[in-house]
Design goal:
Elements: E1 6-17, E2 23-33, E3 42-48, H1 49-62, H2 83-100, H3 104-107, H4 110-117, H5 122-129, H6 137-160, H7 165-174, H8 180-184, H9 191-195
Antiparallel strand pairs: 1-2, 2-3
Family: Belongs to the sorting nexin family.
GO biological process, one term: cilium assembly
Biased composition (Low complexity): 170-184
Length: 196
């Protein structure tokens, strides 16, 4: 009998601009597993601290009797530009997920799977779980998987279409919207290459 495993890594913190005044950091969540609980055996999404807070609240309200692990504290002194602060938070988020993934009851909550294996927003995850969307939880995760395979091809097409060049460079430099790596798991891209 093969030992079931779930590897979860929280890594590659990146600063994202919300608008000219606000920025936030998001982190890549990488999952590799052979567990039957998971729709996909590997996945790679980006989430911000606020979404972790949402996830913890929702899991807690569903599993009242479980004492959920804590998230790294939300300190008013958190400094996005301080690598030590960012890494400390990244580690805390990873430990939080590691503990949650050891609990069978929490693993049965669809929100957790949507959080870990799709880029749906909290509102969309909530709607999906409560059956208000056309797609099921599994659909959402599979759709994300097929997007993974299709996207690089579409991206090449877009680069060929010269007339889109303007909007293209704008969207890639603003860091908003699904940049290639948020979808295609080209997670190794170094920040330097992104700046140019």
């Amino acid at each position: 009998h093969l030992q079931e495993f779930v590897t979860v890594l929280v890594r590659d913190p990146r600063t994202q601009k919300e608008d000219s005044w606000h920025s936030y950091i998001d982190y890549e969540i990488f999952i590799h597993t052979n567990s039957i609980c998971f729709t996909r055996k590997t996945s790679c999404v980006r989430r911000r601290f606020r979404e972790f807070v949402w996830l913890r609240q929702r899991l807690q309200s569903n599993a009242v009797l479980i004492q959920l692990p804590e998230l790294p504290s939300k300190t008013p002194f958190f400094n996005m530009n301080n690598p030590h602060h960012v890494d400390h938070r990244r580690q805390g988020l990873q430990e939080f997920l590691e503990k949650i993934l050891q609990d069978a009851l929490l693993l049965s909550d669809s929100r957790l799977h949507l959080f870990l294996q799709t880029q749906l927003s909290p509102e969309d995850m909530e709607a999906c779980v409560s059956g208000q969307t056309k797609y099921s939880v599994a659909d959402a995760i599979h759709k994300f998987a097929s997007l993974n395979r299709r996207f690089p091809v579409e991206d090449e097409e877009r680069k060929k279409g010269k007339n889109d060049a303007d909007s293209d460079s704008e969207s890639s430099s603003s860091g908003l919207g699904p940049s290639d790596d948020s979808i295609s798991c080209g997670c190794k891209a170094s920040p330097a290459s992104e700046e140019s």
